[in-house]
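INFO  loader      accepted 1 record
INFO  loader      residues=295
INFO  predictor   begin
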Amino acid sequence: MKRSTQDGATRGKTGRPRFTSVVLALNLDADGDRALPVVRSLAALGNVSVELLTVAALHADENVVRFELGRRATIYGWPQSTSSVLHDDQPARAIADHVNARNGALLVMATAARSPLTGRIVHSVPAEVLGPIDGPVLLVGPRVPADVEIGCPTLVVCVDPRDVGDTAVPVITAWTNTFRSAQPRIAEVFSTVASPANNAAAAADPSQAQRYATLLGAEGVTASATRLVGADPDVWLQDFADQITEPIFVATSVRWTDSQRHLHSTTQRLVRRSFGPVLVVPNRRSRTAEGEDEP
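INFO  predictor   done
INFO  writer      dumping tokens
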């Protein structure tokens, strides 16, 4: 009997957490198809089922919507039965409820990852999903190539001295148990322009990355730890990832789950600038001080 975990994954008979399905939420615009190659790659990397999901307006013709979903499924080699249509005037909540009800489901979404100033005007369903969703969301940003193929990705886990939630540990474990991947790389990000409180935290615990590696080791996942120091965390992370084949950033998100718009979110900048998907883990157990950045 399978048991669900709080991170959205499922524990099977062996007790090892894993993902059993991938749910791709599409907006049916041409730009929304950018996530389809990513999902096809994930399906090839792990023994997971695929579901194409869209949320239509209450008055929309479901036959037309299902035809569009089925057409995309056929193009990528899936049966038309993999598609689901929800009718709701609150798409973010509908998507979250749908995925939360499915044990072991990993949600994937394409996003324009617009700047916060633009986001105040332009509605962003992927950002709003991070509030009510229970598990991680793999976001495919605007710079991910439309024909991307992922063969053996490397998770680049972003942590900093304030990261106390540890919510990414079970997610990383589930990922490595599900998808064929290289050894995760944990990057501790320490900003040279951090506040005095953050500097004190870094001095007290100079190896948060190593602590994460130890936690993952207890789960049977071997990971390496690296410390990055610089004025712009996302720039240093990008430079670090440029040395890695097929990197996928893993970032915990506090600032994207409190229903507020923030100008300084490293997570958001990574999604907007990265050439690979970003695995965002909603983290409600840790909180940053007002005005500070988060990984």
